[in-house]
């Protein structure tokens, strides 16, 4: 006698993942746009797309969990996150932290970055929550990291600072709760503080074919400056 097929899990079968998405939704729904029409419009597009994904109750696609060396800094980043304005997001993330598929995303990357950086997706074409027009994820940096200059073709990106202090293009120091908008093709380079790791939530919004194959590439990988490995 053959076993009946196990029905595929859908989003509504995975409450911890729904709660994490609800935290993202709150960030993009209730945070301020700081008076910027462009940021307001980006926030609206992210939350409207996210709402439509949640309403669709998509099938979940869980890949094999995978870690990278920088994952060793995650608990510290979550501890810091729980003390600040994004404590709800940090706690919701901690509930799914054993199910994450950490990645580098680059075919070629400076060797030193292998110990300093990784990201995972929460929602996107690869899952675990399936979506074709929006990617939500988190990126983690070790202390004292320089993430080399890069841009995203035809993808609009926002970072929301969850834990740690960091800077983009030497323009400012961003604290937890800050939202930074990077328009398509905008070149940006990130540096992180000396003492603690830095955890950023991010959203990518763009055309389906571009999100399915974003072609991540560092603009100036030879100039990557890493002072601690
Ligand atoms: Fe970026």
From TrEMBL:
Q: What is the lineage of its organism?
A: Bacteria, Pseudomonadati, Pseudomonadota, Alphaproteobacteria, Rhodobacterales
What domain of life? Answer: Bacteria
Q: What is this protein called?
A: Dimethlysulfonioproprionate lyase DddL
Task: Show the Pfam families listed in the entry.
Answer: DMSP_lyase (PF16867)
Task: State the organism named in the record.
Answer: Puniceibacterium antarcticum
GO MF terms here are:
dimethylpropiothetin dethiomethylase activity
